[in-house]
Amino acid sequence: MQLYTGRGDQGTTDLLGERVGKDDPRIAALGALDEATSAIGLGRAHATSDETKEMLVVAQRDLYQVMAEIAFTDRLRPAAYTLGEDRVLWLEAATDAITTRIELAREFILPGDSIPGAALDLARTVSRRAERDAVALANHEHLHNPQVLRYLNRLSSLLFVLARFEDRNAGATPLAAKARNDE
């Protein structure tokens, strides 16, 4: 099987139902979402908690659904490829469940107190970029499902608390972003 086709050599690619330029904002958003799920995968590979790993798998699968939703043109998208509010509610419940089990610093902290925490902080920043690209799609009428924006907004919160959860599991104490006079 040959993995390359050469069809994109002129700077175009396929959405599901339309050929577009590789600089189309939908392609940019799909790329950012692909980066986000890969970054989450890195965090999952380093995570020490099975609970963290399970939540990250669910989030990655949700992101694949979001990518499918964006990849289809409006006229061809099956209803099954539309992210539902239930996925946002799951994300909120998962975030709340972890938040009750950790103590969050009252100040900005520096990422990097543990390898899994740092990987999840990186995933959080990549997911924020994907969120910004999705907002641009919505602003240009390429994304009509408000649940996608809600989901992506909540995803960074889950990744943040999972990073702190993994830091805590590693015995790390968060390092404040602002140096104190006694340091």
Structure write-up:
This protein has 183 residues and is mainly α. It has one domain: Hypothetical Protein Ta1238, Chain: A (Up-down Bundle). 59% of the residues lie in helices and 7% in strands. The strands form 2 sheets. Strands 1-2 form a two-stranded antiparallel ribbon. Strands 3-4 form a two-stranded antiparallel ribbon. β1 and β2 (18-21) form a beta hairpin. The longest helix is centred in the C-terminal third of the chain and has 25 residues, at 115-139. The chain is elongated and about 55 Å long. The protein starts with 11 loop residues before the first strand and ends in a 7-residue tail after the last strand. The relative contact order is 0.17. The model has no long low-confidence stretch (mean pLDDT 92).
Order of helices and strands: EEHHHEHHE
User: Which value, in Å, is the CA radius of gyration?
Assistant: 18 Å
Give the structural class: mainly alpha
The figure for the number of domains is 1
Overall pLDDT, averaged? 92
CATH architecture: Up-down Bundle
User: Which word captures the global form?
Assistant: elongated
Contiguous helical run count: 5
CATH topology value: Hypothetical Protein Ta1238, Chain: A
Classify the helix fraction into a percent range. Answer: 55-70%
Described by strand count, sense and barrel closure, the largest sheet is: 2 strands, antiparallel
CATH class: Mainly Alpha
Question: By CATH's scheme, which homologous superfamily applies?
Answer: Cobalamin adenosyltransferase-like
Strand fraction equals: 5-15%
Q: What is the number of strand segments?
A: 4
Distance between the ends: 59 Å
Which residues form runs of ≥5 with pLDDT under 50?
none
The strands making up the biggest β-sheet line up spatially as: 1-2
